[in-house]
């Protein structure tokens, strides 16, 4: 379990570096926004392309994905509907809340946990591809719709989605994976360098957002934050266990992998998307912060309960 804590520690160090940058003021008052936009428009699309194009697309059809992906879809749909219609919140807040509840940090936490807890990296690729290829474009459609709600021309939301850098990066990655085509090395190398900036850039931007400290959100947002946290760390793993263990009959390491990957905290790119679309950015930041802290004992408990 020490290696798992080391994985969380790496993230904490980079976030702390961002916090120190924010406190120092060396990036100026708009430094966080600029960094977040670089991550959104440049680094993350490059990461999507590099990751997906170099991965066998068949990995997304792993049988275990019925449990991990199914739990994410059920959680996303449930929180989205509840927030939008029962709580009568905006489309942007409903989308960010749903994403924060079901979009796991599989990239920079999933890999060390799969390596040191599950001893098997095969659990990472299906969840990663599922989120990048299927969930992300849907989320982008919903978020782009918040920018086009006042526009009566039906084709503008579609055009915005097609121009979205996240969608473009994922689409190019899928095309590369399906065809086997690869960028010339002289182009691929700089794209890979840009891709490597995505995760640390997200963490730095998140750390900068904490420069003024963390306070409990207002009562209304506090209830939403509790809902997101409980859903992310308790309900989603429980649904994954029900689908994987009860319905599909998995046990042992496979069931452990399903539950542990579903217990991972909210991904940092939820906050980046929320900032870019000006949709409940503080709620997204708080969800990432709280679920990341609480996921340490949650992952340990899941590993102990289902360990083989």
TrEMBL record:
Keywords linked to the UniProt accession: Cell membrane, Membrane, Transmembrane, Transmembrane helix, Transport
Record carries keyword Cell membrane: yes
Residues that span the membrane, as ranges: 6-22, 34-52, 64-84, 96-117, 123-143, 164-181, 193-213, 225-247, 253-275, 287-306
Location relative to the cell: Cell membrane
Gene Ontology cellular component terms for the protein in this record: plasma membrane
GO biological process assignments: transmembrane transport
InterPro entries, per the entry: Mem_transp_PIN-like, Na+/solute_symporter_sf
Domain of life: Bacteria
Main location: membrane
Family: Belongs to the auxin efflux carrier (TC 2.A.69) family.
UniProt-listed PANTHER family: AUXIN EFFLUX CARRIER FAMILY PROTEIN, TRANSPORTER AUXIN EFFLUX CARRIER EC FAMILY
Name this protein carries in UniProt: AEC family transporter
Species the sequence originates in: Brevibacterium luteolum
């Amino acid at each position: 379990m020490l290696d798992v804590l080391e994985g969380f520690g790496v993230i904490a160090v980079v976030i702390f570096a961002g916090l120190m940058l924010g406190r120092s003021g060396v990036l100026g008052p708009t430094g966080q926004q600029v960094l977040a936009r670089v991550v959104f428009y440049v680094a993350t699309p490059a990461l999507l392309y590099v990751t997906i194009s170099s991965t066998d697309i068949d990995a997304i059809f792993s049988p275990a994905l019925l449990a991990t992906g199914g739990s994410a879809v059920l959680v996303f749909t449930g929180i989205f509907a509840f927030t939008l219609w029962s709580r009568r919140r905006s489309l942007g807040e409903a989308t960010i809340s749903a994403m924060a509840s079901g979009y796991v940090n599989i990239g920079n936490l999933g890999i060390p946990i799969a390596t040191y807890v599950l001893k098997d990296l095969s659990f990472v690729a299906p969840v990663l591809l599922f989120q990048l290829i299927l969930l992300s474009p849907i989320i982008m459609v919903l978020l782009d719709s918040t920018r086009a709600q006042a526009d009566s021309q039906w084709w503008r939301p579609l055009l915005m989605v097609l121009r979205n850098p996240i969608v473009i990066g994922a689409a190019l990655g899928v095309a590369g994976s399906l065809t086997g085509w690869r960028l010339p090395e002289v182009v691929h190398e700089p794209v890979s360098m840009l891709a490597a900036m995505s995760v640390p850039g997200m963490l730095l931007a998140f750390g900068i957002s904490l420069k003024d400290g963390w306070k409990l959100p207002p009562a209304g947002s506090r209830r939403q934050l509790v809902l997101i946290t409980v859903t992310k760390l308790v309900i989603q793993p429980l649904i994954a266990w029900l689908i994987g263990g009860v319905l599909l009959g998995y046990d042992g390491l496979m069931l452990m992998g399903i539950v542990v990957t579903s217990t991972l905290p909210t991904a940092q790119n939820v906050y980046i998307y929320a900032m870019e679309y000006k949709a409940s950015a503080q709620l997204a930041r708080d969800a990432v912060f709280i679920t990341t802290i609480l996921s340490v004992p949650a992952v340990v408990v899941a590993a102990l309960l289902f360990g083989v």
